[in-house]
Amino acid sequence: MLEGEGMQTQEMVNESGVNLPELLARMAYDGELLQEILELFKEQFPKSRLSLLEALERGDMQQVQNEAHNLKGMLAGLSIMEGSSSAMRIERMATESAPEGIPEELTCLVNCVAVAQLDLDRACRELNR
C-alpha cells in the first residue's frame, strides 16, 4: 500500500481527478500491472486526441463523438474521473452538433490528463519500491 495512504490518497483524488483508491484496488495494488497499463495509455492517448482534433477540423461530428466516447472509456478505466467527465461533455457536444465549446473542453481534458499522469506515475513508483 501507499505510504500515508489516508490523507495523501485523498489529496491525490482531489488534485488530479483520479480515484486512486479505486484504481489501486482494481489493480490489486500491483505496481507492475499499473505501470504496463499506464504505458499503453501514454501511447494511445495522444493518438486518440489527435484523431479527435482532426475530426473536429473536418467538421466530422460523428467521428468526434466516437473518439470522445473512446477517450471517456479509456479515462474511466484508469479512474481519471474528471477527464472522463470532460470527454463525456465533448461527446455530448458532438452529438448535439454544437462544436463551439469542444476546443476549450479538450484543453481542459488534456490538462486533467497531464496532472493525472503525474499522480499515476508517482503511485507506480511508490508501489514498485
Give the class from helix and strand content and strand pairing: mainly alpha
* Strand residues, percent: under 5%
Count of runs of 4 or more consecutive helical residues: 6
- Average pLDDT metric: 88
What pattern of helices and strands is seen along the backbone?
HHHHHH
Number of domains: 1
- CATH fold-type name: Four Helix Bundle (Hemerythrin (Met), subunit A)
Task: Give the proportion of residues in helices.
Answer: over 70%
Beginning-to-end CA distance, first to last residue: 11 Å
CATH homologous superfamily designation: HPT domain
Number of strands: 0
Low-confidence stretches: 1-14
Biggest beta sheet attributes = none
Radius of gyration: 15 Å
The dominant shape is elongated
Level-2 CATH architecture:
Up-down Bundle
